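Lab notebook, bench 4. The sequencing result for the construct came back, and we need a structural model before the next group meeting so we can plan mutations. Quick request posted to the team channel:

Model the 3D structure of this chain.
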Amino acid sequence: MHCACGNRLVADDDEGQVQQALTHAQEVHHEMNLAEVQAREMVSSQATDTEDPSYEARARATPC
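Done. Here's the predicted structure in token form:
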């Protein structure tokens, strides 16, 4: 999953992505006050499966 600030959040599963998003928001975007339910919505709509064949192309095209 990519953040609008340019960071790429990587985890093994959706739960890990949620935790990554919450941690990232707390550390980098603390004014955002991201709630867990919001992080879950973000993950369900934006997370990318690394097993998707087009993942590598998208990952290379987006800077970290």
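The chain has a mean pLDDT of 82.
Will bring this to the meeting.
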